[in-house]
Amino acid sequence: MARYDMETPPSPKYFPGIAAVLQVSERRIAEMVAEQWYRVKPGDRLPCGLEPLVSAAETLDPEDVEQLTDMARHLLAIRRELRGLQDGEGHHDPRA
Question: Are residues 85 and 94 in contact, defined by beta-carbon separation less than 8 angstroms?
């Protein structure tokens, strides 16, 4: 579902017409809108341990969220590096 130059997601009042054109259910249209606009899918769940992090991140400026994301990726790279060393794989660049 393309947004083109839309600034807001389509209103639910348009779901029946969109569903008819695409020959899918209105529920499927709602799911598509949620996925396209809010990046959530049916069945998505937030692990309990991440709730405090997400709660804190929701209060940050977009630039800070970007930095938080970079930090998380860096920590993941370090963890992978340590696991590689523990498994005897030798040295890996954590930025790779």
Answer: no
Residue type, 9: P
Angle, vertex CA 36, rays to CA 30 and CA 42, nearest 5? 50
> For residues 77 and 94, is the Cβ–Cβ distance under 8 A?
yes
Signed CA dihedral, 79, 80, 85, 90: sign only: negative
Per-residue pLDDT tens over the stretch 13-43: 999 999 999 999 999 999 999 998 888 888 8
pTM for the full predicted model: 0.46
Identify whether the C-beta of residue 9 lies closer than 8 Å to the C-beta of residue 37: yes
